[in-house]
Write a structure and sequence with these properties.
6 helices; about 65% helix; globular
Length: about 100
């Protein structure tokens, strides 16, 4: 999975709208859309970092950096990512209350 695919995945599964994530990142919704769909092929790193933070994901995860001292299979990483999405959804729902 590329960084862009991971970013798209977390945005889609965040429980927030793209407009909300763009607002939290301080960018235009159109910019977020272009980054996610690849129309903006080389976004500034700072923009990607702001989107990742707005989507509540660590940039290291986005870039698929290995965790020191822990070796996980791709299946294990996918399971952890899915759990993270569930947790983010729960947090998002509790923030709306």
């Amino acid at each position: 999975m590329t960084w862009r695919e991971r970013l798209r995945y977390i945005v889609v599964n965040s429980g927030s709208t793209q407009a909300e994530i763009a607002r939290r990142a301080g960018i235009a919704p159109e910019t977020l859309s272009r980054v996610l769909n690849g129309a903006h092929s080389k976004p500034a790193f700072a923009t990607v970092v702001r989107i990742a933070r707005a989507a509540r994901v660590h940039v290291g995860w986005l870039l698929d950096e290995p965790v020191r001292g822990i070796e996980l299979s791709e299946r294990e990483r996918e399971t952890i990512r899915a759990a993270g999405v569930i947790l983010l959804d729960a947090i998002s729902r509790s923030d709306r209350r």
